[in-house]
Amino acid sequence: MRNILDLSPNFSKKTRKKSNIKFVIIHYTGMQSEIESFYRLKDKKSKVSCHYIINKKGKIFQMVLDKHSAWHAGKSRWQNYRNLNKYSIGIELVNRGHAYGYENYSKKQINSLIKLCKKLKTKYRLKKENFLGHSDVAPLRKIDPGEKFPWEKMSKISLGLWYNKKKLKNQFKVKKNLKYKELFFKNLHNIGYRYFQISKRKSGDKKVIRAFQMRFIPREVTGKIDKKTFQISSFLSNLRK
What is the 8-class DSSP label of residue 15? Predict the structure, then answer.
């Protein structure tokens, strides 16, 4: 791991206990270049930072010490937690993002991310389901790390939830009269997603659905609750019981 000479000033000065760190939240920088990303994360005016940033060559730079809350998640919720900055480590991956030509993440970049996440998981005794994307905790505002992020690969080494495709078809068949669109949001709430009402539909619901699909069905991001989307939500909800 490489440390930059001067850390970002954008963090809460009050230190936190190791036991307060519950999550790792993964982002993409969403800027046109690596240099521009560093400037923004270190600019006091931006009021944005992260704990670590990983460039395309797989080099890791620390921007904020773990003991401080970096300003990376913004307004966010997951399960009963609000303001995830207080409870998480934020990791940025250098990637232009959807606004500037969304790229595939490099193998070196993901390999470095995996090594870092494994260390953080051990150090802070993190649960595998607590490795999240920015779009998971802020689905109405954010879409990173996006549909090209390899969540399935991460899950195979216990860095995130995933589903068993064989069990999915056998255990979660959708019956004709089943009101699965209503049950879908109950599943999402049980998994941890927020920013919607279980029994009442709102205009922002489509963004929540898309956030879920970007993570678990990245090739079928429609914003609509189809049977497959519901089945996956049921499987994951069942794991949380």
Answer: -
DSSP-assigned letter for residue 104: P
Report the distance separating Cα 10 and Cα 229, nearest Å: 38
pLDDT value at 12 more than 50: yes
Q: Is 133 exposed, middle or buried (0-12, 13-18, 19+ CB in 10 A)?
A: buried
The band of 2, judged by pLDDT with boundaries at 50, 70 and 90, is very low
**pTM to 2 decimals?**
0.95
Last residue of a domain, one of 137, 155, 173: 155
Q: Are 232 and 184 spatial neighbours (Cβ–Cβ below 8 Å)?
A: no
Q: At CA 20, angle to CA 50 and CA 235, rounded to 5? A: 85
124 φ, ψ to 5°?
A: -110, 10
CA dihedral 239, 195, 105, 223 (to 10 degrees): 90
* Residues marked as catalytic: 92
Residues 101, 201, single domain; the answer is no
